[in-house]
Design brief:
With about 200 residues, the protein is an alpha+beta fold. The protein has four helices and 13 strands. The protein has a five-stranded mixed beta sheet. A four-stranded antiparallel beta sheet has the order 2-1-3-4. A four-stranded mixed beta sheet has the order 7-6-5-13, with no helix packed on it. The radius of gyration is 17 Å and the shape is globular. The mean pLDDT is about 95.
Length: about 200
Amino acid sequence: MCLLLESIRIVDGEWMNLAYHRHRMEISSKELFGITVSPDFEAVEIPVALRRGVVKCRVLYDAEVREVGFEAYVPRKINSLRLVYDDRIDYHLKWADRSALNVLLSQKGEADDVLIVKSGWVTDISYANVVLRFGDKLVTPVHCLLKGTRRQQLLDQGVIVEQPISVEDLCKADSVIIINAMLGIEDGIEIPVNRIFK
């Protein structure tokens, strides 16, 4: 069976958003294996050279943790998106195998990434959730492919709300903001809707 993946942000040696990551690992492992995987991340030794700055911890697991790795985090440069359509894609669990997403990503053309539409509803880009800016209102699609940890944190804090977003709704937005475990709204990866290609 394919491994699951969890990516966790570490800033200056401090783990970020751990409760949300533990929760997702527990839910995913319970669904697949009937047991709960809930690592004690605080006991994991962060390499000395990576205790400054923003670091990505990559955890591979199935019924138990198989691998933990660390790397300095460098955000991708995303300035444009292309709409792609797939009514069958299922990524409700964070699989390490991203082949279905990579097939869609291969359709990006000259854009930097893809914005995936499933059954007429806007979902996610290939590696992150999205938040749409409508003036002062920040909205995340209710039909996301993966319920991301940062997305859930922002919902719980009342920073964003969720609602169905159609392609027609997308045209009324000002911009699309990319969020994931490594990127928050404050990180400023924001794409004007006129940079979303059909």
